[in-house]
Structures are given as structure tokens and as C-alpha cells.
Amino acid sequence: MISMTLAEVAQTTGGHLDGITDPLRMVTAPTAFDSRNVTAGGLFACLEGARTDGHEYAADAFAAGAVALLASRPTGFPAVIVDDVVTAMSDLAREVAARYTGTVLAITGSAGKTSTKDLLTQILQRHGKVTATERSFNNELGFPHTVLRVEADTDFLVLEMGARGKGHIRQLAQIARPAIGAVLGVGSAHLGEFGTKETIAEAKRELVEALDTTGTAILNADDPLVRAMADHTIAEVLWFGTTADADVRAEDVTQDAQARANFTLRYNTDAAPVQLRVVGEHHLTNALAAAALALSAGVPFSVVVDILNDATLLSGSRMEVTDCADGVTVINDAFNASPESVAAALRSLAAIAADDRPSIAVLGEMRELGDASPGLHQEIGRQVADLGIGQLITVGGPNAELMAAAAREAGSADVAHATSKDEVLGLLTDALCGRDVVLIKGANSAGLFETAAALSTQH
Predict the structure, then answer these.
(1) Largest Cα span, the chain
(2) Which tens digit of pLDDT belongs to each residue from 92-114?
(3) 20 to 30 A Cα–Cα from 73, which one of 30, 47, 116, 421?
(4) Alpha carbon distance 46, 126 (integer Å)
């Protein structure tokens, strides 16, 4: 964290000091909201949740080296007392961002934010010091938490921006205003909250609306809803994609036997071959976005190419491929699921299993799709049949059953349904022959990443 005194923390958050004998004592480490992550010199934010209350862990935080608490009530330990801890974290992050002199890069989109962030971080690390969003901490709590990790000598601050409604991204951008902002695409994720993809697009474009005339909007030229965002920003626009007019584009795209994209990357007069190590055709979009972001931040083209050829995904359960000792291949893509990402994962499964290997898709329900949910699940079932996936196991409630029924009606012969993840391993054990390729995907709340981990360990 960019250092400030406890007196400055109180002034910034509108709080008051409680039990603090030295108001000039410096806060030098990030603010943590989990006492197990407190580091010496930092603050501990006492969040109150449905099952836990951070105030009860004050002693643990001080044992780990906390300077003070950010709390909503006295605890007997030195604290800055505020009306609302989450709001105070945002206020504190806004002040830290105002003092930060490096480059702020932001990423939003219906899917691919974390994967793009992972690729971009590896590119930028070759060029300077980077602070980036951990995992998928991209909401009103995770976003300020990331900003509060930035240090004075950090060259690049990479931020994911998530949204559950209109105005959310605008609020995040007011905490830390990006110099460069990328919109990856507009899909069906969170359709239940937004209602239509057009409304989702309006929420995502808040990022490019927040850029000023010195900024750069990185937009997906392959997505019509993202293309339209160019009319809503005063920043310079840099296009990425596969279309001929994209500034950062992929040409001569092919896919190897592991569903990894192979292409020629072009930018201005520069061109070079790239063979991605990350599995899944959809990562082509993420790689192009990461390249465009890095190039806009001043990273040389040669460095971008070099790292893209070597980069992996740093966050788990995203097209994570494990080749087991007995010949079974497990594709763990169970972090989350939208109609677009499930369809892409199924195509990758079909490509990897194309060489006469048995293919099995374990698909959990997709969440937050609103009234469109039944039809979207049925469409996924039909895609399983169309792609010739050998076996389908659906997991969950009525929508999962609709997906299974649609697959059967479309011609899939081997379809089973499990009401919970606990039934999946038993169904798989009976099906595996030793050369299978198994895709496991579903909403994060379904917990299928545990199934993927158990399957990988057993085989």
C-alpha cells in the first residue's frame, strides 16, 4: 500500500481514532479483510457478514502485525472507527489511487476477465512491477482491496471490473480512474439481473465512458455490441480481434490437437507467429485483448509475442487440463459457466477428443440467466448432440434436466442426470475406459471444481 498515517486514514474515511496513541504511525502494508492475510504494517478491515464478524478476529489481526483496525465499533484494540467498513475501504482506495503515479489498466466483459488479466500480468511483469486483481476480486469489495495493494514503485495496476447492475462499473472507475480500459465482449452472463444483452452492454460501456481524452479504449472488433461503444468514449480507440480493420489482430488462425490457438499476431507493421499454451479457442480473444492492453501501455511488440507464446493461466479451474497416469484427460473449467463459455468449452472438448478418444461432458446448471434460462440450457443440450460428445452428465435441478432432455431429443444416446455433484464420480467411474477426455464445467456455486480435483487425483 502507498503509505499514509493513521490520522490520514481517519481523515480520508471520515472516521475517528479509537485507542490510537500515535496518529502519525504509518500504514505501510495492504488492508486485509481476512485476519489470516494480515501482514505487518497493514490495516485489518472488520467486515460483518451473515456468518462471521471481523471484529471478533481483532486479536488475531494484531498478532499478525496489524497497525490498526478499520472497524464500525470499538473492540478494545487500536482502530479507526467508521460508519461503514466497505465504504471506508473504497474511500481509502480512492485516496491511494489519487497518489499513485503509475498506469491503471482495467478489464471488463461478460467472460474472460480473469484469464485476460492473467495473460496481461505476465506480459507486463517483463516490463515493470505489477499489482493485479487476485483471483476474481472485481466487485465493490475486491476492487478497493486490489487498489490498496498498490505500492509507490508499482508501474502497472491491473484491475478487473465486474458488474451486477448498471452503475457498478462507473462507481469502481470513480475509485481508480483507468488510463486504459478494455471491453472483452457482451454475453449472456448475469442476464437474469440485466434482462437483455443490450442492457449488459450499457453497463459494460461505463468503463470506456470513464476514460478521458488521454486514455485508450481497447474494444473487441468482433463483437457488434462492443463495437458500438466507440461512440460513447472520448478516448482513443484501439481495436482487437480477427477482422481486417482490427489494429491488433490475429490472422491465419488454426487450432492444434489440444485446442490451442495458433495464429499470426499483427500490429501496425509488426507481425509474428504465436502458439498459445492455454487451451480453448475462446482464449484467442483474451490473448488479443491482453496484447492490445500491453501495447497501449508501452510494452514492445517483441515482448508481447515472447510472453504470449509462453504464458499460462494463473487462476485455477479455467480450462485447466490434467493428463492422468491412466490416460484419462480432465478439463477443469468449473470456475463459472455462461452459455457462451460452455459452448466454447464443448467445442474444445470435441477438438481434443477428435482422435477417436471417448468424450464426456459433465455440465452443471448455469445460473443468473433469468427467464431465458430454460431455453439456454436446452440449446446447450442440443450443442452436445451436434458436436458428437459421447456422454453427457448434467448436474443440478430442473434446468439441468432440461439440458439432458434436449440432448436426448437431439440424438445423444448416453445421457445421465445427477441432482448434485456428490453423484458425479460414481457415474464417471462406471463410464471411464482409460482414454477418455472429461470436461467438467458449471456455475461456481455448484462446486464442480471439487469433482474435477477428485477425478484428477483418483486417476
Answers:
(1) 74
(2) 999 999 999 999 999 999 999 99
(3) 30
(4) 36
Beta strand residue intervals within 49-184, DSSP E: 68-71, 79-81, 103-108, 130-132, 156-160, 180-183
Q: For residues 65 and 317, give the distance between their C-alpha atoms in angstroms, rounded to a whole number.
A: 33
pLDDT for residue 240 is more than 90: yes
Helical ranges in 14-112 per DSSP H: 58-63, 85-99
Of 60, 84, 108, which closes a domain? Answer: 84
How far is 418 from 423, CA to CA, in rounded Å?
A: 6
DSSP state of 437: E
Confidence label for 144 from pLDDT (cuts 50, 70 and 90)? very high
* CA 113/CA 136 separation, integer angstroms: 8
CA neighbor of 435 nearest in space, from 325, 318, 277, 280: 325
- Structural domains counted in the chain: 3
168 and 260 share one domain: yes
CA-to-CA distance for 97 and 99, rounded, in angstroms?
5
The pLDDT of residue 196: 93
In this structure, what are the phi and psi dihedrals at residue 90, rounded to the nearest 5 degrees?
Answer: -65, -40
Question: The C-alpha cell of 354 is what?
Answer: 477428435
Q: According to the model, what pLDDT value does residue 339 have? A: 94
Give the C-alpha separation, 10 to 82, whole Å: 8
Same domain? 155 vs 268: yes
DSSP letter assigned to residue 232:
G
CATH number at residue 74: 3.40.1390.10
pTM of the model as a whole:
0.93
Question: Three cell numbers at 266?
Answer: 499483427
**Could you tell me how many residues make up the chain?**
459
Q: Do 163 and 211 have their domain in common?
A: yes
Asked if 210 and 181 count as a contact pair (C-beta separation under 8 A), the reply is: yes
- Do both 47 and 11 map to the same domain? yes
Stretch among 69-78, 118-127, 326-335 having the lowest mean pLDDT: 326-335
- In angstroms, the CA 343 to CA 320 distance is 16
pLDDT bucket at 459, cuts 50 / 70 / 90: low
Closest among 109, 126, 58 to 282, alpha carbons compared: 109
When pLDDT is averaged across residues 435-455 and rounded to a whole number, the result is 92
Answer yes or no: do 348 and 267 share one domain.
no
First to last CA, the chain: 44
